[in-house]
Specification:
The complex is a heterodimer of chains A (about 230) and B (about 280). Chain A is mainly α and about 230 residues long. Chain A has helices at about 1-15, 20-35, 40-70, 75-80, 85-110, 120-140, 145-160, 165, 180-190, 195-225. Chain A has one domain (about 1-225). With about 280 residues, chain B is α/β, with parallel strands linked by helices. Chain B has two domains: about 1-220, Rossmann fold, CATH 3.40.50; about 225-265. Chain B is built from nine helices and 13 strands. Chain B has helices spanning about 40-50, 95-100, 110-115, 135-145, 165-180, 190-195, 215-220, 250-260, 270-280; strands spanning about 1-10, 20-25, 30-35, 55-60, 65, 80, 150-155, 180-185, 200-205, 205-210, 225-230, 235-240, 260-265. In chain B, the strands form three sheets. In chain B, strands 6-7-8-3-9-10 form a six-stranded mixed beta sheet, sandwiched between helices. Chain B is globular and about 70 Å long. Classes of the chains: A mainly alpha (about 230), B alpha/beta (about 280). The interface of A and B includes residues 83 and 230 of A.
C-alpha cells in the first residue's frame, strides 16, 4: 500500500515536472528518425536510440527527479512517516522504469519493429533502464543541486558508456565485457543481429549481477546520506 | 514519555560535539520547549528524537523504546513539522495531505477539517507553489497532525505567521495538549515558549543550562515590586512599591485613593531576562 502510494505520487510528480512531455517529444522524434532511415540502418540506429533513451536519459533524469524532490525538502518529510527506505527507492525506480519502458515500447511500435528475440530484447531494455537508474541514484544521493549532479555524474556516465566504441567499431577490448553497457548493447541489438546464446546468457547474467551490486550500493548511500544524514 | 541521558552528538567528521551531554525528560501530555538562539542545537536534538540523526552517544528512549532500535512503526504515532516547509509544490494542499495520509495504517484525520482549522479551506485546491510562507507553515502543521499522533514535534511552529494566525496556531497547539498529546517545540521565540510551554529547556552551544516552568522562572528571577504609573495633575509619576504587606502600605493606599492610576505591573522577570541572565546570551 505504501509502495503503491509512493509510486503513484512519483509518477504524478514526474508528470507535473514535465518529464512525460520531454519523453513524449523525444519518443516522437526517435520514431520519425527511424521511419526515415533506410532498412539496413534501422536496427543499429534503434540500438543506439534506445541506449540513449532508456540508459543515458534515465541516468540524468532520475538525478534531476531526486534533486527536484530534495529542493522541496521532501525527503525529510517522507522519512518521518512509516514509509521505509526500500519502499521509497523502489517507488522511484519502478515509476521511472515505467516511463522509460513506455517510451521504448512506443518507439518500437511507432517504428513497427519486432523480431524473434523479443524476450531477450525486453529483458535487456528493462534491466538496462534499472541499472542506469541505479547509477543515477548513486550520484544523486550526495549531490546538492542539479548542476552539482551533472558535473559529478558526467565523467562516470561517459566512462560506463565506453563500450559504445566497440559497437560502432572504433575500438574494442575484452575489458568491455565487465561494463554493463556491453550487455545492454548486445541485448538491445538482438533484433537486428545474430548473437550466440552464450553471449546473450552472459549479458543477462552481467545485468543481473550489476543490478544486485548497484541496488545494495544505492540503498547504503541513501541510508547514509539521505535517510540519516549527519 | 521521553527520557534522554548524557546525549552527545557530532556532525560528520567534526571533532567538536554539537550536543554536549544533554539530560532531560519530557512527561506525558506536556508541552516541552527548547529555547535557544540559532545554532544552539535545538533542531539537532529534535532530529535525534525523531530518529533522523543516528550515531549519537548516550541514551534516548521514547515510550520506553530505545531510539537506536526503532523501526518504522515508531512513525505511526508521531507527527513532525519541520521549520522549513517541505511540501510538494506542484500539488495542491489537499493533494499533499491526501498523499501523506496513505502511509499510515491507523485512522487519519480528515484533511479538509485540518485545513479549515488553520484557515486554509478556501486554498485547499491551490498549488503549494502559490502559497505564502505563513500558509506553508500552517499546511505543514496540518500534515504533522494527519495520523492523530500522540507525540508531536514542532520546529519553530510560528515562524512567518501574522498575529492573527499566530494566535490561531497557539490555540491549536493547546487543543492538541488538551487531547492528551505530548508536544515538543523548538523555538527562539520567547513569546511562544512563555505562552505555550509547561516547561522550557534553555539550550546554548549544545548544552542545557536550565529546565523549568516559564512562570516559575519569571517569578524566581523577578523582584517582588509593583510598578505604578499615575497622574499627579499634568505630571505622570512612576513609583515602585514592595508587594509584601501591600494592603497596609500607606503610599500605595494614598495613590489608590487620591490619584488617577494609568498602569500597574508586577515586576516579575521576562523569560528573555531569565535566559540572558542564566546563559549570558541573547536569543537572536
Amino acid at each position: 500500500m505504501r509502495l503503491l502510494a509512493a509510486m503513484g505520487q512519483d509518477i504524478r510528480f514526474q508528470f507535473r515536472h514535465g518529464f512525460y512531455y520531454a519523453y513524449a517529444v523525444l519518443t516522437i522524434l526517435y520514431i520519425i528518425v527511424l521511419r526515415l532511415l533506410p532498412d539496413t540502418m534501422v536496427y543499429p540506429a534503434l540500438t543506439l536510440i534506445l541506449f540513449s533513451d532508456i540508459c543515458a536519459l534515465g541516468f540524468f533524469f532520475i538525478g534531476a527527479i531526486v534533486l527536484l524532490e530534495r529542493g522541496q525538502n521532501l525527503t525529510e518529510s517522507l522519512f518521518v512517516t512509516p514509509l521505509r527506505l526500500r519502499e521509497y527507492l523502489l517507488a522511484k525506480i519502478l515509476s521511472f522504469l515505467f516511463l522509460a519502458t513506455l517510451s521504448a515500447l512506443l518507439i518500437m511500435l511507432g517504428a513497427s519493429i519486432g523480431g524473434q528475440d523479443l524476450m531477450w530484447f525486453v529483458f535487456g531494455a528493462v534491466f538496462s533502464a534499472l541499472i542506469y537508474t541505479l547509477f543515477g541514484l548513486i550520484f544523486a544521493a550526495r549531490a546538492r543541486h542539479v548542476n552539482d549532479y551533472f558535473v559529478k555524474s558526467l565523467g562516470a556516465g561517459l566512462l560506463i558508456s565506453l563500450p559504445i566504441l566497440a559497437y560502432i567499431r572504433l575500438f574494442d577490448t575484452p575489458l568491455f565485457y565487465i561494463f554493463p553497457t556491453r550487455a545492454t548493447l548486445i541485448l538491445l541489438d538482438v533484433l537486428g543481429t545474430d548473437y550466440a546464446l552464450s553471449e546473450k546468457l552472459f549479458s543477462v547474467a552481467s545485468l543481473l549481477i550489476w543490478f544486485l551490486i548497484l541496488g545494495s550500493w544505492v540503498y547504503q548511500r541513501f541510508n547514509k546520506y539521505v535517510r540519516h544524514p549527519a | 514519555m521521553i527520557q534522554v541521558n548524557d546525549l552527545h552528538f557530532a556532525y560528520g567528521s567534526n571533532t567538536q560535539d554539537t550536543l554536549r551531554g544533554l539530560n532531560f525528560h519530557i512527561n506525558d501530555g506536556e508541552i516541552f520547549g527548547f529555547l535557544g538562539p540559532s545554532g544552539a542545537g535545538k533542531s539537532t536534538t529534535q532530529k535525534i528524537l525523531i530518529g533522523i540523526l543516528k550515531n549519537f552517544r548516550g541514551s534516548v528512549s521514547v515510550n520506553g523504546l530505545d531510539l537506536q532500535k526503532l523501526n518504522s512503526e515508531f512513525y505511526e504515532s508521531i507527527g513532525v513539522a519541520f521549520e522549513t516547509p517541505n511540501l510538494y509544490t506542484k500539488f495542491t494542499a489537499l493533494e499533499n495531505l491526501e498523499f501523506f495520509a496513505q502511509f499510515y495504517t491507523g485512522m487519519t484525520r480528515n484533511p479538509m477539517e485540518l485545513l479549515a482549522a488553520v484557515g486554509l479551506e478556501e486554498a485547499a485546491r491551490t498549488r503549494v507553489s502559490d502559497y505564502s510562507k505563513g500558509m506553508k507553515v500552517r499546511l505543514n502543521f496540518c500534515r504533522s497532525l494527519l495520523n492523530n499522533p500522540r507525540l508531536i514535534f514542532l520546529d519553530e511552529p510560528t515562524a512567518g505567521l501574522d498575529p492573527v494566525n499566530l494566535r490561531k496556531m497557539e490555540s491549536l497547539i493547546l487543543e492538541e495538549k488538551a487531547r492528551g498529546n505530548t508536544i515538543c517545540i523548538t523555538t527562539h521565540d520567547m513569546h511562544v515558549a512563555d505562552t505555550l510551554c509547561d516547561r522550557v529547556a534553555f539550550i546554548v552551544d549544545g548544552e542545557i543550562s536550565l529546565i523549568d516552568a516559564p512562570r516559575k522562572l519569571k517569578l524566581q528571577h523577578g523582584q517582588r515590586f509593583l510598578e505604578l504609573e499615575y497622574r499627579d495633575g499634568d505630571k505622570l509619576e512612576t513609583i515602585s512599591i514592595p508587594m509584601d504587606n501591600l494592603g497596609s502600605n500607606k503610599t500605595f493606599q494614598n495613590i489608590l485613593n487620591n490619584y488617577f492610576i494609568e498602569t500597574i505591573h508586577s515586576r516579575e522577570a521576562s523569560l528573555e531576562d531569565v535566559f540572558v541572565k542564566t546563559t549570558g546570551r541573547s536569543l537572536q
